[in-house]
């Protein structure tokens, strides 16, 4: 069996990872084994702790994350979402002075310190089921998105601490991988992406289609991938790992 890697597609909200290996010496891109594949949602716990809309729609509570909170005389706080019927109920039921705007947690309004703390906790809790030899992290441009670069280096530092200088770990290398190489391993029929206007959308589309091509005969991962909402992120980390292992 070949070396095992964890390939990481850096994201502020969704961070995708794929633990995989090539199972032949000739680096055939069709002879791969995926051990783990998934998404780390950095803000899911913050979003889960948000108040949800308390308006009834039919006989059910709406439950959508709120955009306004209302302070009741009892001190209890309730909220309402941006749906027209929920806003209408709120405005008709409560005084203007009771109603406050609520900012839904996003990466932009969450500090880098908090993002780093959440991410490190998530990485610490990630149960890696097989020993990893190398870590491959998507390299980020320094000036284009400084927060993404910071997230990249937080991940890098995590694997230095928990891999390179940890005597109990097999990790012996951390590679910063250029995103432009992800699509180069594809060896299937040409796929037309000209219906998409910009290069970014074309790359994302091709990344998903190329991944479908490689995993079409791997039932477990084919079902997993095609039923997932974040196919583009999963595809990026898979193709990145595949290209690195086959280069």
UniProtKB/TrEMBL annotation:
Pfam family, one: Ydc2-catalyt
Molecular functions (GO terms): crossed form four-way junction DNA binding; DNA endonuclease activity; flap-structured DNA binding; Y-form DNA binding
Protein name: Mitochondrial resolvase Ydc2 catalytic domain-containing protein
The Mitochondrial resolvase Ydc2 catalytic domain, residue ranges: 5-140
CC annotations in GO: mitochondrion
Organism per entry: viral metagenome
């Amino acid at each position: 069996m070949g070396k095992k890697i964890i390939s990481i597609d850096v994201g502020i909200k969704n961070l995708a990872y794929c633990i995989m290996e090539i199972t032949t010496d000739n680096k055939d891109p069709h002879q791969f084994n995926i051990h783990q594949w998934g998404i780390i949602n950095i803000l899911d716990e913050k979003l889960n702790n948000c108040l949800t809309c308390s308006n009834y729609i039919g006989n059910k509570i709406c439950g959508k994350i709120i955009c306004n909170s209302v302070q009741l005389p009892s001190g209890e706080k309730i909220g309402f979402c941006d749906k027209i019927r929920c806003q209408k109920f709120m405005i008709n039921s409560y005084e203007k002075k009771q109603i406050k705007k609520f900012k839904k947690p996003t990466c932009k309004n969450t500090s880098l310190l908090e993002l780093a703390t959440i991410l490190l906790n998530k990485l610490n809790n990630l149960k890696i089921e097989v020993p990893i030899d190398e870590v491959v992290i998507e390299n980020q441009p320094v000036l284009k998105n400084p927060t993404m670069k910071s997230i990249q280096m937080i991940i890098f530092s995590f694997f230095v601490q928990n891999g390179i200088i940890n005597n109990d770990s097999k990790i012996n290398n951390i590679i910063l991988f250029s995103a432009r190489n992800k699509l180069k391993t594809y060896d299937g029929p040409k796929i037309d992406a000209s219906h998409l206007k910009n290069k970014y959308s074309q790359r994302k589309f091709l990344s998903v289609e190329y991944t479908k091509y490689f995993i079409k005969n791997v039932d477990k991962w084919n079902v997993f991938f095609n039923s997932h909402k974040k196919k583009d992120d999963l595809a990026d980390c898979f193709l990145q790992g595949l290209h690195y292992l086959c280069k």
